[in-house]
Amino acid sequence: xxxxxxxxxxxxxxxxxxxxxxxxxxxxxxxxxxxxxxxxxxxxxxxxxxxxxxxxxxxxxxxxxxxxxxxxxxxxxxxxxxxxxxxxxxxxxxxxxxxxxxxxxxxxxxxxxxxxxxxxxxxxxxxxxxxxxxxxxxxxxxxxxxxxxxxxxxxxxxxxxxxxxxxxxxxxxxxxxxxxxxxxxxxxxxxxxxxxxxxxxxxxxxxxxxxxxxxxxxxxxxxxxxxxxxxxxxxxxxxxxxxxxxxxxxxxxxxxxxxxxxxxxxxxxxxxxxxxxxxxxxxxxxxxxxxxxxxxxxxxxxxxxxxxxxxxxxxxxxxxxxxxxxxxxxxxxxxxxxxxxxxxxxxxxxxxxxxxxxxxxxxxxxxxxxxxxxxxxxxxxxxxxxxxxxxxxxxxxxxxxxxxxxxxxxxxxxxxxxxxxxxxxxxxxxxxxxxxxxxxxxxxxxxxxxxxxxxxxxxxxxxxxxxx
Length: 468
Known about the structure:
This protein is of the alpha/beta class. The protein is built from 14 helices and 21 strands. The protein folds into 3 domains: 217 residues, FAD/NAD(P)-binding domain, CATH 3.50.50.60; 112 residues, FAD/NAD(P)-binding domain (3-Layer(bba) Sandwich), CATH 3.50.50.60; 114 residues, 2-Layer Sandwich (Enolase-like, domain 1), CATH 3.30.390.30. α1 links the parallel β1 and β2.
């Protein structure tokens, strides 16, 4: 069966499905090929969405057990129904995947279920999920196949005792001891879920700090807060092996710079050492699409690969592996293909850790500015001095704004504290419009709100914060 399309998107994750919808809105005849059997990609099915559902549920449980009494709310004995919690998570995922299917129908995007392979420029061959094969002829092909969990030598994943983030969302019993290999966003979020539900959590990180790409001061404060919550950290430590048995998992670890090995006994191990582009089965080499030495597809400013008519976005190309980055790239790529212009300011893409408190960043860190030789000023404001944070008993953390010393243009912002992922977007907008710390400082912020801490940090850039 042969068809003629303006665009065929391979991959139905955040980047792919948004690109397909935007292209259809712009009048392009569009199809989206997805082999999972459900739209939304890793993010919606086994990543961002189910993990946030579990974070929310576990947070409510922990609040009920530990915090409500201080508010005058006595609830008696509290029991965890993990099966119900997991079922709620699954329903959230199912409802949202069906929602994306509805959006495809609404926008007249054809959803093709199966594994796509690029036969040549202008043709995608699909091994259909229901059997058989179909060729989609198209003017343009967009690769949006995302990423997969990075394996770790000596540690064999079974998704039961030794798990990736996928298996960590399906554990049917709270582990006695949950070990996270890797101190990044995903591992700390899943560690938070199981720590709140009663597990002992140990984080093993090869480097000398957690969240190594984050602003150093924020990372240090973040680790201190997690330590108070019961996390244990083994920094500058490498895992050299893992052996699963009926009793649990035995990890072999050693100092990152060498030394004697030791063993750690635990119930479940989460391997969370990063992600790598997923391009298996696409036939990239056969059609001449170039990749770099890490497997990322090489693209130009307009997302074009080395083969005319083939484009790529999201986790399988350079840049932060974030769903919202992929979404923006999908929209912009579709607009370019439709003859419009678009841009993405990669300095205005926020990164968020959805622990409690949350951690959010945008733009440059202090370390990056120092390395680049940029003169800057710093404004900080602690949540202990914010009235709404005191009302809410969420006084951990601070807001930090970095501004150019000469022009006052905001270069970066970093927040550790309650609702940091929401608060950061004020600074995202300011960076997108090239605004200054003074712009934030002169903007009226409602009282009492957590947002006032952002204003005070902006005032502090000029040394005139009011409430400290």
